[in-house]
Amino acid sequence: MGKITLSSISTRAPKELDKQETKAKTEAILQKLDDLQNLLYAESKHSILIVIQGMDASGKDGVIRNVFGKLNPQGVTVRSFKVPTAEELSHDFLWRIHHAAPAKGVIQIFNRSHYEDVLVTRVHNLIDDATAKKRMKAINDFEQLLAEHNSTQILKFYLHISPEEQQERLNERIEDPAKQWKYNAQDFEEAKKWNTYMKAYEDAFEHCDNIPWTIVPADQNWYKEHVIASTLLKTLQGLNMKYPGLKKD
Q1: DSSP code of 54?
Q2: Is the pTM of this model over 0.85?
Q3: Is residue 227 within a helix (H) or strand (E), and if so which, with residue range?
Q4: What is the reported pLDDT for 246?
Q5: 35-54 tens-digit pLDDT
Q6: 177 phi/psi in degrees, rounded to 5
Q7: What is the average pLDDT value for the chain, to the nearest integer?
Q8: How far apart are CA 70 and CA 92, in angstroms?
Q9: What is the mean pLDDT of residues 212-217?
Q10: DSSP letters along 99-143, please?
Q11: 48 touches 235 (CB < 8 A)
Q12: Which of 2, 117, 138, 163 is the most interior residue, by most CB within 10 Å?
């Protein structure tokens, strides 16, 4: 992938796209994904790991609900990674991650992920640059292990939101009663570290690109959902899956 400068990438959909047409295309894709996810589960030869990263209020929960929420919950699981517990901290940083890796036939979604351990930890000076580089190497090895030894397709999405849109959404959490449960004063403090977070993300993109990242413009939810749904559709179609048929006695 090479060096990425996030400030040079738009956070909005291409101007030529029509919102309603794109939403209609997304709905058609979701219907196809429903069938393909059932096929993935039935064949049980591959697994899918969806990594969703982004700043606070970039819409991680929304995309999980609107894209993956229409799939059969029997074959889709979601794991959120927050501040490590005391037990998790007593192990290596990938211990809790590997435990949540997808089984064959399953779509596993990481709402935040192993990348938090080279993002938040760096921004808050919990690890030095040398440790971060070692961790990124371990992440590459971990992802390669899943891909090569468990037929796991890994899709990594960064929800690219603008600081202006982030502030608007954070303020909505104060003003909108339906969103007040999401309010966390610490989110505003983290937002002040925007430039530091961008540098940490750009470094992770550069050094953890054996499996490439998709930078998803995320200021408009309809476009964000379309990009992620389209990428998943292409991935599943590329597996050339088949139903296993009747089992022999």
Answers
A1: E
A2: yes
A3: helix 221-237
A4: 84
A5: 999 999 999 999 999 999 99
A6: -55, -30
A7: 96
A8: 35
A9: 98
A10: TTPPPTT-EEEEES-GGGGGTHHHHTTSS-HHHHHHHHHHHHHHH
A11: yes
A12: 117
